[in-house]
Every structure is written in C-alpha cells, then in structure tokens.
Design brief:
The longest helix has 17 residues, at 56-72. The protein has 378 residues and is an alpha/beta fold. A hairpin with a 4-residue loop joins strand 10 and strand 11 (186-194). The strands form three sheets. Strands 1, 2, 8, 9, 10, 11, 17 and 18 form an eight-stranded mixed beta sheet that branches. Helix 1 (13-24) runs parallel beside helix 6 (147-160) and helix 1 (13-24) runs parallel beside helix 10 (335-351). The protein has helices at 13-24, 41-44, 56-72, 94-109, 119-125, 147-160, 200-203, 235-240, 276-289, 335-351, 365-372; strands at residues 2-9, 29-32, 48-49, 87-91, 115-118, 135-139, 143-144, 164-166, 171-175, 178-181, 186-194, 210-219, 229-232, 246-253, 259-267, 298-308, 315-319, 322-329. Bound molecules: flavin-adenine dinucleotide. The site of flavin-adenine dinucleotide has 43 residues, from helix 1, helix 2, strand 12, strand 15 and strand 16.
Length: 378
Amino acid sequence: MSAFDCVIVGGGIVGAALADALSAGGLSVALVEARSIGTGTTACGMGHLVAMDDNAAELALTSWSVSLWRELRDGLPRTVEYDACGTLWLAADDEEMAAVHTKVANYRAAGIRAEVLDSAALYEAEPSLAPGLVGALRVPDDAVLYPPVAARTFALRAEARGARLMTGCPVRELRPGGVVLANGDVLAARHVVLAAGVASPALCPELPISPRKGHLLITGRGAPVVHHQLVELGYLKSAHGTEGASVAFNAQPRVTGQLLLGSSRQPGEGSREVDAAILERMLKRAAVFLPGLDGLQALRVWTGLRPASPDGLPLLGPHPEKPWLWLACGHEGLGITTATGSARLVADQMLGRVSAIDPSPYSPSRFLAATSRGVAHA
Ligand SMILES: Cc1cc2nc3c(=O)[nH]c(=O)nc-3n(C[C@H](O)[C@H](O)[C@H](O)COP(=O)(O)OP(=O)(O)OC[C@H]3O[C@@H](n4cnc5c(N)ncnc54)[C@H](O)[C@@H]3O)c2cc1C
C-alpha cells in the first residue's frame, strides 16, 4: 500500500492543475486517471480562456484564473498553443449593443481591460465578418490554448516535483484514508480529491452534476481569417438555458489557418453521438456571421459532456459530511479557463492559506448541506 498526502482522482485539466498546485505546496501527490491525462471532457473543449460576468462569483473566478494563465504563459511549451488573441463579443442589434455597454462597465469595475468597438472599428478588426453588425466588446486579455496539452503540461510539472502519475487506473471507491482502484489495490492518503468531471457522481452519488453536451467542428485550412475568439452576444442566452438544445456562434482562430467552430448545448444529454440536426443549426448560425465559410471542408466534428452544476459554478472545497474528501468538479463550460483558479482555491484551503478571492461561493456545502436535510437538488 502506497501512502500520499493527497490522491487526486481524475486527470483532466482540473485534476492536473491541482496536482501542480498541491505538489508546488509541498504535498506528496498521486494523480490517478482511468485513461490518459486530458482525454476526458478536457480533450473536447474549445480552449477559450474567457472572463465571464454573468454573476460576481463567476467573474471573480474567471478573471483571476485568466490572470493566473497569463502568469504561466511564458513557461508553457509551444505545443500548448497559448495565443493571446482576446475575445470579441459581437452585437447584432442595438439591444445587444446596450449589453456591450453594461458588460464593459462590469469588466472595468473588476479591473479587466475592455473596450467598446463601434461598427467601423469592428470591421477594421475583423473584415471577414458579415455586414450589418452594430459593434462589439473587445476583451484583449482573454486567450486560447490547446486543452489536452495544457493538462499534460500541468501533470508533468507535478511529476517533476515527485508527484506520481497513474494512468490507465480507474478508481472504484473513495473512502476515509484513501481510494480503492479497480484492480483492488489501495492507495492510502490523508486527503482524497474528486476531480472526475462528469463521472464524479459515479464515485460520490450525492453530487448534483449532470452532463451538458456540446458539439464542435474544425474546418480545413483556408478558412476566413479571424484574429480574435469571436462570440455572438446571443451566446449568453444559449449558455444560460437550462431546457432544450441551443446553439450560438463561437469561432476560434487556429495557428494552422483552420477555424474551430462551436457551439451547442444540450442539458441532461449524456450520449456522445453527433447529432446531425444540431450540427446543421450550428453551421447555419456560423455562416450568418462568417459568410466565407460556405463551401469550406469540415475536417472533424466531435462532442463532449460538460459537467454542469445546478448554479453553473464549480464545487471547490471539502465535502461537508466527509472531511477527508475534497471536491473539484462541476465546471460546466468554463473548466479550461478556471482550472488555474480552482486548483489554487482548493490548494489554499487544504494548506490553510488565504486565497486571492473569496472561496465561499464555490463551497460544496451550498448543495450538499441541503441534501443531508433531505432537500432535492435543482
Ligand atoms: C464542446 C465543449 C466546449 C468547451 N469549451 C470550453 C472553453 O472554450 N473554455 C473553457 O474554459 N471550457 C470549455 N469547456 C468546458 C471544459 O472542457 C470542462 O469544464 C473541463 O474540461 C472539465 O475538466 P475536468 O478536469 O473537470 O473533467 P475531465 O476533463 O472530464 O477530466 C476528468 C477525468 O477523470 C477521469 N475519470 C473519470 N472517472 C474516473 C475514475 N473512476 N477513476 C479515475 N479517473 C476517472 C476521466 O477519464 C477524465 O480524464 C468546453 C466543453 C465542451 C464539451
């Protein structure tokens, strides 16, 4: 039986970032992954590092996380493809332009650089866009990267500090004092962290995490040239919807001259099959904004399951009824962005450090305390 200060279950970007943060904090760590590092939802994500201002807690975690990524960027290998392209939130009409002005105020109040582009400035920045848009919000410090390689980079940094990476090792059971692997071996540890993404409830059934399926498509080379991650402001309506499928235009420039196109949301959908009808809606939406896509080849289409919590915020911190168990799951559509901040928040709590942001909005007790009183999850 091996003994560690901490066993992390799940080697997605969240678990890998945690292994990095906890090993940097001086703990002996094992990162246990059923398959290989970064091959779960992390491999399906778009890799947009984006400050989002739907509510104060989301803005605090995303903006801090984006700034932590920026601090890391010079030390990241080129294969992570970190590109400081910024985000353009596109306004299709005056109502959306009014939202741009609200958002710019929110961002600036949080210390995030943001600027309003009128229509002329927008088309100067992105000449490939279809005519008729009224303006945009530009957030220059947002970025994009290639998520599975970012996850592997975190895991290798942890390994270089002595952490043990165990891949091809499904965990069968979590219990006080450690975990039991599928082959019956026991890994002993003072702390266990559950970071198994959408599979987390399989090991801790009281967790209110459900799949929210998304489709992405990558084009061949020769796509319309775009310089920023482009997102329609209508994306926010799609991201918040809790019922029914929705699509919204979201396009990411790749260094290869390809475009990564998203995105769709299907709450509660756990199958990974490509849905032709959803894909068609997504592509039609993309063509509204980028007419140059017509006739371009799609190289690959895939889906992924976002691990969604009822309030859209991750669960970060100790399980209220199982003090040995820590949770780092439920990141929905922002887990690539918030992996850095999430890892720091959990590591700070475990190591008794004060965090740069208030950890309480992400506390698992907001759901699990209610469960123990017999209140149903949302
Ligand atoms: C289409 C799409 C687009 C997205 N775009 C973005 C984006 O642009 N920006 C952004 O910030 N986020 C984005 N996301 C969300 C992001 O991908 C997720 O929030 C993030 O990847 C979750 O990471 P994770 O480490 O929690 O989960 P995962 O990456 O799923 O990792 C969990 C790991 O746990 C392992 N595991 C499961 N069960 C066990 C077990 N019993 N034993 C051992 N290991 C186990 C799995 O194999 C897996 O590797 C997107 C998601 C999708 C689907």
